[in-house]
């Protein structure tokens, strides 16, 4: 048995409670998005298909009892991520509201992915292309995510992975 730990995943069909789908769905509806604190918290982003490829690689070639971190090295502040999403959704900075930071919100998450890379792991998705694909999925599939957003869910703040 091996263990995999991945950085923050994103991609089509993710539940709209996490930051990327929540921001996309809000922006597509013309609603503002909220950033905690100063928006400078750093996270690493990994497309879900790259995560699945990494899990399969570890399953087939990992050493039993070992743990493998899966990430792609794309570190962004939440503010930078929001900038990409604003652009992809046709919105501007007037759609961003800064709110009080969450208690004990880590400033940065960092992972050492050397063991997974030693197995040959290398994500294939570029973050900007992956985000564009994800926005397109939400844009063209509101019937899949809109029923998940009740009135209260639309107004809540994001669950930052």
From TrEMBL:
Any idea which UniProt keywords this protein has?
Answer: Plasmid
The family line of this record is:
Belongs to the NAD(P)-dependent epimerase/dehydratase family.
Where the record annotates domain NAD-dependent epimerase/dehydratase, the positions are 1-71
Q: What is this protein called?
A: GDP-mannose 4,6-dehydratase
Question: Which parts of the chain span the membrane according to its record?
Answer: none
Cross-referenced PANTHER family: DTDP-D-GLUCOSE 4,6-DEHYDRATASE-RELATED
Q: Does the record carry Flavoprotein as a key word?
A: no
- The organism named in the record is Streptomyces zhihengii
